[in-house]
Structure formats: structure tokens, C-alpha cells
Automatic annotation (TrEMBL):
Residues 190-384 form the GMPS ATP-PPase domain. One of its GO terms (cellular component) is cytosol. ATP binds at S217, G218, G219, V220, D221, S222, S223. The gene is guaA. GO terms for molecular function: ATP binding; GMP synthase activity. It comes from the Bacteria. Pathway: Purine metabolism; GMP biosynthesis; GMP from XMP (L-Gln route): step 1/1. SUPFAM superfamilies: Adenine nucleotide alpha hydrolases-like, Class I glutamine amidotransferase-like, GMP synthetase C-terminal dimerisation domain. This is GMP synthase [glutamine-hydrolyzing]. It is an enzyme of class 6 (ligase). The active site is at C78 (nucleophile), H164, E166. Its EC number is 6.3.5.2. Keywords: ATP-binding, Glutamine amidotransferase, GMP biosynthesis, Ligase, Nucleotide-binding, Purine biosynthesis.
Length: 509
């Protein structure tokens, strides 16, 4: 594997991403991880990431003692390169001016650039530069502004690049990272089939004969995990799907139809009455989330007792969640979590203290989707947009009622089916319908109406932290509007949300 030591660059995750794409397994550890922790990953190569600090700062994060002496190749990126250079006896100082953006390499060569030809555009973002080269190193690339843009010592196999090879703005950066894998002698055989076999073996090794409990939400992660665990432990898995009455049209049936035939021991729990009872008259969004979270845990706990005892609780935690919760380096996400309290399985009572099984901890979302395909999860679930845990409760603005949920379900179904029908679904990252409390005057036939306004929202985004509203074709919106008012007689007005995030959020509550 390649171990990436993270010194706080916003691009660290992309380095891991690129290595995975190149077929190499890589793992991100905090920059200051201990030598023992690093050794556990059997590193064949190490990357020191970029970061916001200066190597000459007292408080700058540093790799643990001994890391630089490991007998494997090391690649330093930006801050990482400056650190390598300084440790080997070179000097690093503030550059004349901060270099930010694209730069052309005026010259390049050496092992890292082997086989690369033509123009090399490099993405820079730094204020410090290597001023004096340490002994044993040579400069292998330069730009007009930065004479020391890449360095290497091919005896100790230490390499450094001042630019970011992992970002798309460095188009040939992937070749450079591939060369580094070659230097490390890392086999590029990491693919979805391997991942599935490894995961199954890993789960078997961890749980042995133990019994495993899993909460199924109907989304791609928990559904895929259900399929994987069924393969790994068969009947020792109990998957619980709680129908809280806040699901979309036909959703419960779809989940059952997808998982039962593939051998998942699935128990569907009808908890609609409890959830509706607890939510009656509640209009504050955060209050709704809290109640749903609490009721969810209650229902789940009850099922755990009925079908238990269980030794393990399985969770579909993904790699980005792990990195985000670990270092707190990626503060955008923790900030966002405070804006809306996202509910997850958590806070179970002590006597239900299971050990956790989290087979997807090293995977990215698209890897899970790939695994889902291999395990036979139907396409409509596999490529589905995310759907929030509190479901339609946060899409009926204000207090929810059965009647309002029923209206929203039909509107949502027309919109989502329409997106699929017109080939627009995959182009959106998330699409939703909202039932507003606004009633307004309309005219249908010769009659005056006084009915609800439905809002449609579709967004494109990479990370759901920021988003753009999707530029859906007018003709499509016109068709949706017609279908909705014709088929859902409680609606007489349809609006399309043209606000980005920020300032709005994706959900309306
Ligand atoms: P917002 O509305 O904050 O949504 O822009 C960002 C993403 O998070 C989802 N979301 C939730 N997911 N529980 C969840 O599991 C929640 O309470 C919740 N609130 C928002 C939202 O659907 C979008 O994908």
C-alpha cells in the first residue's frame, strides 16, 4: 500500500483517490501518526501531503521520528517536499511572492517524469520555496517563478514536487503518480473484485461465528452492505428496515424486492404509527429531526432485543466520513453538521453495546457503487440520489400529516420518474419535491381553486457542501408542472427552486 501522511491539505483525499484510480491501495493517516501505526499498513511507499503550515514554524506538524528513514520511497508534495528538503539539510524560505494557479514547467526530467512528454502544466499553491538544495538531491523540474519545482535523490529514493500532481489542473499529474507507484514496486491490481473478496474475508475474520445486526435505510451504502454481509455471514446477519412512514412511493417494496431474493435476512418493521404519533403538531425542523432520531433508536433497539442477542453492529461508514471525523482537518463538513443535525444510528444504550463492523471504512462512494453492481443490487437503487434519514418529514414544510405526506409522495414520484424518463436523473446529484404550506388561488376548468404550492428542486454538486441548482430544460419543467397539477388535484401551483447552496441549503428544512 501507499501510506499518505496528511498535513492538512485540502487535496489530501485526492491523492488517495488518484492512487485508487491507478489500481493501487492507499490509506491516509494523520501526518503525525506513529511509526507502529504506519507499519501496520505495510507501506511500500509514503507520501507526505501538502499543508497550510511552514516547515520553519515551531508548531508545524512533523512525521514521527524514523519515518523518513524507512527503507521505502517517499514523495513529498508541496509542504511535504519542503519538509523533506529541510530535513536533508536544505533551506526553505518564504518565496518572493505567493505562487497560486497554473504554471508551465520550463524543464523537467528524472524518474518521476519518466515517459512524460510535451507541455507539463502544474497547479501551484505555495508561499514557501526550497531555496538551497540538500546534498544528494538534484532539481528535476523548474518554472519561471520557482527554480526548485521538483527534486529527487534517486539513491535514497526521496522525491519532492512543489506543485499538486493530484488535482485535475495538473493534467499529467496522474502519470507522475503512476511513476511513483512504479518506483515503489507497487502492483496495480486493486479493483472491485479484489475489494469484494477482501471485504468478505475481512468480515469473516472479524466476526467469526458472531451475530450481526444492520440497519437498512434503502440507500446504496446500507443496501450494498446488506448484500456483502449476507455473502460473508449468511443467516448470522439480521438486517432491519424501519418503515417510519416518511418514505417515498413504493420505496419499502423496492428495498424488499432488491434484498430478499439475494439472500439478505431482512426484517421490515412497521413503525409508522409510533413516528406519526410522536411527530403530530411538530413544525420545527430540528425538533422533527430529534424526534425521528429518537424514535428510530427506540424502534431499532426494540428489534435488537426481539431478534438478539447480537455481537456486532454493522455500519456503512465510508472513507470520507472516517477522515473527516478523525483529524477534524476538513472543517467544512463539521461546520455543516451543525447547521442541520443529521441523524445516524448512534446513541444506543450501553447494554446494547455492540462491537462495530465497518467494512466500507476504506472505500469511496463510487467504489461502493461498483461493489453494488458486482453483488447484484438493482440499478435504480445503485445509482440513486441520496435521501435524508428523516425522509419526507423535512420536505413537508411545517407540521406533517398523513394527507400532506400522501400529496408529497405523488408529486415526488411524478418528478423523479419524469427525470428518469427524460434521461435527466443521472445529470442531477439530488432532486426532490417539497410541499409548501402556501395555499393560493387558481382556476381549473371554470372553477376557482384554493390549493397547495409544490416546489421542485434539483441540484448538481460534488460534495453536497455547496451546490448549484440544476439548469433543467424549460420544456421538461413545463411537462412536470402539467403532470403534477393534472394528477395531484391538491396542487394548483408548481415552482422551481433557483437558489444555490449557499445561501440556501439543498433541503428546505
Ligand atoms: P442540506 O439541506 O444541508 O443537505 O444542504 C445536504 C445533504 O444532506 C442531506 N440531509 C440529511 N441527511 N439526515 C440525513 O441523513 C438529515 O437530517 C439531513 N438533512 C439533510 C440532504 O438530503 C443533502 O443530500
Amino acid at each position: 500500500s501507499v501510506v499518505i501522511l496528511d498535513f492538512g491539505s485540502q487535496f489530501t483525499r485526492l491523492i488517495a483517490r488518484r492512487f485508487r484510480e491507478l489500481g493501487a491501495y492507499s490509506v491516509i493517516l494523520p501526518g503525525t501518526a506513529s511509526l507502529e501505526r504506519i507499519a501496520q499498513e505495510n507501506p511500500q511507499g509514503i507520501v507526505l501531503s501538502g499543508g497550510p503550515s511552514s516547515v520553519y514554524d515551531e508548531a508545524a506538524p512533523r512525521p514521527a521520528a524514523g519515518v523518513l528513514d524507512l527503507p521505502v520511497p517517499i514523495l513529498g508534495v508541496c509542504y511535504g517536499m519542503q519538509f523533506l528538503a529541510q530535513q536533508a539539510g536544505g533551506t526553505v524560505a518564504r518565496a518572493g511572492r505567493r505562487e497560486y494557479g497554473k504554471a508551465d514547467l520550463t524543464r523537467y526530467g528524472g524518474q518521476l517524469f519518466e515517459g512524460i512528454v510535451g507541455e507539463f502544466v502544474a497547479w501551484m499553491s505555495h508561499s514557501d520555496s526550497v531555496k538551497a538544495l540538500p546534498a544528494g538531491y538534484e532539481v528535476v523540474a523548474e518554472t519561471l517563478d520557482t527554480p526548485v519545482t521538483a527534486i529527487e535523490n534517486n539513491v535514497t529514493r526521496r522525491y519532492g514536487v512543489q506543485f499538486h500532481p493530484e488535482v485535475v489542473h495538473t493534467p499529467k499529474g496522474g502519470q507522475l503518480l503512476a511513476n511513483f507507484l512504479g518506483i515503489c514496486g507497487i502492483e496495480r491490481d486493486w479493483n472491485a473484485e479484489h475489494i469484494v473478496e477482501d471485504l468478505i474475508e475481512g468480515v469473516r475474520a472479524q466476526v467469526g461465528d458472531g451475530r450481526v445486526l444492520l440497519a437498512i435505510s434503502g440507500g446504496v451504502d446500507s443496501s450494498t452492505l446488506g448484500l456483502l454481509l449476507a455473502r460473508a455471514v449468511g443467516e448470522k446477519l439480521t438486517a432491519v428496515f424501519i418503515d417510519h412512514g416518511l418514505l417515498r412511493l413504493g420505496e419499502r417494496e423496492q428495498v424488499e424486492a432488491a434484498l430478499l431474493p439475494l439472500g439478505v435476512n431482512l426484517i421490515t418493521v412497521d413503525a409508522r404509527t409510533e413516528f406519526m404519533g410522536a411527530l403530530t403538531g411538530v413544525s420545527d425542523p430540528e425538533q422533527k429531526r430529534k424526534i425521528i432520531g429518537r424514535e428510530f433508536i427506540r424502534a431499532f433497539e426494540r428489534e435488537a432485543r426481539i431478534h438478539g442477542p447480537f455481537d456486532y453492529l454493522a455500519q456503512g461508514t465510508l472513507y470520507p466520513d472516517v477522515i473527516e471525523s478523525a483529524g477534524g482537518l476538513h472543517s467544512e463538513k463539521s461546520g455543516a453538521a451543525n447547521i442541520k443535525s443529521h441523524h445516524n444510528v448512534g446513541g444506543l444504550p450501553d447494554d446494547l453495546a455492540f462491537k462495530l463492523v465497518e467494512p466500507f471504512r476504506t472505500l469511496f462512494k463510487d467504489e461502493v457503487r461498483e461493489i453494488a453492481r458486482l453483488l447484484g443490487l438493482p440499478e435504480h437503487i445503485r445509482m440513486r440520489h441520496p435521501f435524508p434519514g428523516p425522509g419526507l418529514a423535512i420536505r413537508v414544510i411545517g407540521a406533517i400529516t398523513e394527507e400532506k405526506l400522501d400529496i408529497l409522495r405523488r408529486v415526488d414520484d411524478i418528478f423523479i420518474s419524469g427525470l428518469r424518463e427524460f434521461g435527466l436523473y443521472d445529470g442531477c446529484s439530488q432532486a426532490l419535491a417539497i410541499l409548501t404550506p402556501i395555499q393560493s388561488v387558481g382556476v381549473m376548468g371554470d372553477e376557482r381553486t384554493y390549493s397547495y404550492t409544490a416546489a421542485l428542486r434539483a441540484v448538481t454538486t460534488d460534495d453536497f457542501m455547496t451546490a448549484e441548482w440544476a439548469r433543467l430544460p424549460y420544456d421538461f419543467l413545463a411537462t412536470m408542472s402539467n403532470r403534477i397539477v393534472n394528477h395531484v388535484h391538491e396542487i394548483n401551483r408548481v415552482v422551481y427552486d433557483i437558489t444555490g447552496k449557499p445561501p440556501a441549503t439543498i433541503e428546505w428544512e
